[in-house]
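re: that chain from earlier
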Amino acid sequence: MEKGLAVSPGVAIGVAYCILEIFVNPDRKRLEKHEIQKELARYEQARERTAVDLAALQAKVEKQIGKSEAAIFAVHQSILRDPAFTNKVRKWIVEEHLTASAALHRLMEEYSAMFGKMGDEYLQERLNDIRDVVVRLSAYLSDVLNNAEDSGLSGPLIVIADELLPSQAVALGEADVRGIVTQAGSQTSHAALIARSRGIPAVSGLSGILRKVKTGDTVVVHGSEGLVSINPEPEELAAYRKLEREFFNLKDQLAANRHHPAVTRDGTPLKLLANINNVKDVESAAAMGAWGVGLYRTEYLYLTHDNVPDEDEQFEIYREILKKTPHRYVTIRTLDIGGDKTVAYLGHNHNEANPFMGWRSIRLSFEHPEFFLSQIRAIMRCAAELEDGSEGQVNMLFPMVTNVEEMRKARHLVRKAEKSLDERGIPRGKVKVGMMLEVPAAAVCIHHLLELVDFVSIGSNDLVQYLTAADRDNPKVSGLCQPLSPAVVITLKNVIEACNQANTPVTLCGEMAGQPRAFLLLLGMGLRSFSMSPAFIPTIKELAILTTVEHAERVVEKVVSMKTTNQIKRFLRMELEAISPDIARLDTE
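^ sequence. v structure.
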């Protein structure tokens, strides 16, 4: 039995599928002689398609953003044309009967070993450029989970990986993934977010798990307790199958309330909103009973787009999101790129010393004002769809705002976008402008910022790691990066009270919103709007029905006097079990 971090509740049993790099599949299959020419042709076709993509991307970025930012794609094209690069791949296909994907994987390992020894920053950047080209080629050659199906694996899959990055999440596709286990990560890592958005059990922070599991093994994931069992004995497996059925039945029972209004036992109405990444997520949100969309993460449009989405493309997608959103209520966050989410055409530095606290998010958007303005205009055009007098609201959310100066600058760009659309005679709607509160400096000065915004969305995932100075994806400091720590509790209480006193709508859209124990606290602090992964809406709706505001306020009174995270967690666990033992089972330790 392996013990890691519990990040998404439930129990799942399935066949292990180990992924070393999500797009670069180290396929061990050897080609038959008659397959070699066909594999060479597949590789050449992938090269041609990649070359066309890179040329088009260079031209588009040069036009929309700038010549210097587009130069990176000329570098990538030169790598693609490099004889040393391509000849090695061809040689391994012909002489060693490797698949094109396996040859690319070997090439990447060879370059990584060679450049890694040199320790030169310039060479590290070149290595990243090579990796980007390999990823593009591999994406055309295969999808890792389609390969899993082709490999003869049957039944539900448990994905085992080092970590699932945002740009890699799309590779999960439609495969029957029942659980996720990662070596890196934490309760707020992107693997955790992916798992919770799909409502599947997950465990993170299991160092060395890829050395202990091989593809095809039977794996049990107990996401509520952070346990993973590899090839369990028949008696243990039978016990886990019973637990798995119980969790499925419980989730089905809770899902029955999806069309009921969200209201507490004493009649206080709540807004339970959904965090989404794409149109498909909106459909899941509606099916789970979401009132609307509290956070649309637009960066996934860029991360999964093979080109630069222009204003018209963005407008069409935003309009589709709005059309399918319940009550046509949607909050669209502007581009939140940086940290572990990067796109090459914005010239992001892979080797930035501290990317999570560096050139990212709105800071990066300000560096590319025309690019930024195209997104603001697209959101405003989307809002014009509501001018028919029907219900609805489009909100524009600026991420990682640190101070008053940044919010004023954002407001200035909003006015500039309005003027631009008016001059072009393009319809625009009324958009409410808000800030995402995730920087401690903004939390401390919340009263100053409230004068400049129509609403506030608390991004608890980043706020927690910034407050605790602990990387949320580093299991070695996960004991510090705790959303139920005293510092986080006090900060959230102060922010929510300040917003309520100023009559400024406030929503929490981090993962805390969907955690039953945290819900008790947030409700008692005065929060009435929660945005979460769609899969958690039925659970929180059921908990609300069983809870009174008065009880939640008493919980807060006791918690704010507590001095340790463990003390707070234990107390909230007892409170939750007293309200509903079943819901307590759906909380993570």
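Residues 21-26 have pLDDT under 50 and may be disordered.
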